## 1
Amino acid sequence: MLQGVEHQTVDPHQYRLLVEKLSAELREHQAHPALATVLDHFPAAAELYENLQYAHAGLCRAPLEASLQSELAARELLARVSR
């Protein structure tokens, strides 16, 4: 469902409820062996999953090189802004 409403105008409250429900399901089934396959087929759910995991796992679904480059770019930008 989330994939279907990503580029549509929907009620913000309904969207939030949908995201909360999907978040709860992703948390409950994060160790399920089929989760990676599901996330590979539904990019909106994969992005939500990664956001849920970010605090302790960083960009857990992104390839390591892309994650590292993102982190380095963010550090460089913060350094430039702070000067």
## 2
Amino acid sequence: MTNYRWRIVGLLFVATTINYLDRQVISLLKPTLETVFNWTETDYSHIVMAFQAAYALSYVAFGRLIDKIGSKVGYLIAVFLWSIAAVLHAVATSTFGFGVYRALLGLGEGGNFPAAIKTVAEWFPRQERALVTGIFNSGTNIGAVVAPILVPWVLGVYGWQVAFLLTGLIGFVWLFFWWWNYDSPQQHKHVSPQELAYITSDAESNEGNSAIRWIDLIRYRQTWAFILGKLLTDPVWWFFLFWLPSYFASSFNLDLKKPSLPLIFVYTAATLGSVGGGYLSGYFLRLGWTINRSRKTAMLLYAMCIVPIALTRYATSIWEVVGLLSLAVAAHQAWSANLFTLVSDMFPKNAVSSVVGLGGMAGSLGGLLFPILVGSLLDTYKTAGDISIGYNYLFVLCGSAYLLAWLCIHLFAPAMKPIKLPDALPEVVS
């Protein structure tokens, strides 16, 4: 039997790595750009919000588009758009300009996960999807690990403009490999009949090719389980991504013009959490557990692992903080791998990308609003002379968000019953 599906995972992993490398650059350049453009924490939060607003719109728009035109062309459009935007950061001359280019970046980057999750649903049976999602999702952390090594070096040698230019150009290389290597498993010449039979071994009989309307999908409780899970937890990850470098710089005088070992440790832990988190629920499935029990048990364990981040205020050294943050980001990525997999567990393939888009939009809207609180809180305590107090409050909020999200998921999808989409959808939530 061929194993071409794992090459597809490789392409998804590289695209997700590039996706997060491009968005992470600005957080590492923040101290430099603050000096050049006289940014306050509130100014920076507005730039983050511009990205988040566009990202939210893009998520739901690409979710719908990709269910209509397919993963191959949809992914290509998304990567092309965000790569152009990443390069344009190099010519920004004002805070407003950065806001515009961040918004354009968000418009492209929102297509990554709807395309990737749909691709996983098309190429893998259910027992492998959480692991596969964890593998490609670990690219979010590889990008975050590479950035603290690459960006400070480029900044020191060539300046901040080249840092944006270099990272943005990488996406264009990926486009070539995606176009020449991707097709659906049913049409792919490198997929053997045995591998195709394995891929489609648990296919639903009612899985069609036409996209489902959003208004029809939001009538289902299962859709809201995913939406609320993303709304409550995605803002935490955005906070980790955009403010951790600044947190280490302000609280521990970390020099972001040099490779940052603490950040490398934190995001490496997130990589391990992503892959391991996807493996655990798959292991439970192999033990004979139901999908409902397997996914929710794993997700509850991960939610509990994030709670200790509230103890950061009592840490006395940077490495104690690194340990707490490493556990939190690893648990978040493990949580995220399983949360995305819930969609393909409960919905047919022709609705997966649309549901991911709806949930991603909700998560991005949460990420849009959260920076308002973050910027205001940090500026208040920065003015008062102790910005670390602001971070302490934020870590408490982050530590409690996942248990609340798990409870919402359980209430809205208590049995995680798969959706059967009839020709005429019911008028009430089923």
